[in-house]
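User: I'm writing a short report section on ligand binding and want a predicted complex to refer to. Could you take this sequence and flavin mononucleotide and write out the structure as tokens? A short remark afterwards would be nice.
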Amino acid sequence: MTELISIRDFESAAREKLSSMAYDYYRGGSSDEITLAENDAAYDRLRLYHRVLRDVSERDLSTDVLGSRISMPVLVAPTAFHQLAHPDGELATARATAAAGTIMTLSTLSNCSIEEVAAVGDAPLWFQLYVYRDREATRGLVERAEAAGCTAIVLTVDAQVWPTRERDVRNRFHLPNGLQMANLMPAGFDEIRQSHSDSGLAHYVVSLFDPTLDWSDLAWLAEISSLPVVIKGIVHPDDASLAVEHGAAGIIVSNHGGRQLDTSVATIEALPAVAEAVDGRIPILVDGGVRRGTDVLKALALGAKAVLVGRPILWGLAANGEEGVGEVLEILRKEFDVALGLCGCRRCDEVDRGLVADV
Ligand SMILES: Cc1cc2nc3c(=O)[nH]c(=O)nc-3n(C[C@H](O)[C@H](O)[C@H](O)COP(=O)(O)O)c2cc1C
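Assistant: Sure. The structure tokens for the complex follow:
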């Protein structure tokens, strides 16, 4: 087997192990997959002005996000259905993420339950929330996340209308027998069935997710939970300002990894204007297309406190379970450490705007 030394190597290894339905579900985006490709390409277009002749013999990659100290500015993004990659599913991801000293965000649509994943250890765990039309079921999810010890709610706001993910339509995407969405069992919304004409997931979301969600629902969330709310799915600076005004504890600049609105702006291109609008009032995170340590550095330079990675974690999990997720996180750590040092920085807070060329 080829040695797995980069995130791309892990993707190739994962592809060999996964069914084509699972690989396409993980890999794919919406429509023409333009945003999906742009998320990566926009990082590749950015050039660094590295700094020299500073003592970088000692480097500290750790940072703080919402009161948690993490070992590096890389978190795990919420992604659904980890048991499509490995039988241990989200439990394996949680163990590897905890061992790496960072935060996992658990998807509403996980195969393992909030309680099982939270029981893995003491590492901080965030819970990603999709708001269902059934608000009592939604409240149940939030209350369970809080009771299980999750330290933040990540409210995903870019999925109120479902786009066509053509790969999933062609594959008639569904959850294989035996896999369910453990968090939704009490509400009876735990299965994604095969549809004869569409992606089963599209059918599920359209019938169950709440398209009426709006800014006033942040007050509703604050009523039912005392957890900080991080809003995921913002790219417009005006929405970033509204998020601050409505009490968000943080923002994730995200286009859902190119899976929602196709031709939406690449997230690293959206970040500077969002950072300007937020003006340091709340932390900004960014996801989409982070595949190298230099990408992490570019995100920090343009105003992010940290990044999240989605697919790289799934590639690690599919390639080699818990160990694979750990290896993926260590690759990113090592690459970011090199990028930091070669840019003349010893700590995350020394990374500044001047390191990235204007494009
Ligand atoms: C297979 C897959 C499933 C996802 N499931 C969710 C989800 O359940 N909830 C959510 O908020 N975002 C979900 N996302 C989006 C990710 O949280 C994240 O925004 C995206 O993957 C980041 O891009 P990257 O994969 O290029 O790192 C999913 C992404 C992928 C690839």
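A remark for your report: The beta strands are 63-65, 68-70, 74-76, 104-106, 125-129, 152-156, 229-234, 250-253, 284-287, 306-309. Residues 7-346 form a domain with the TIM Barrel fold (CATH 3.20.20.70).
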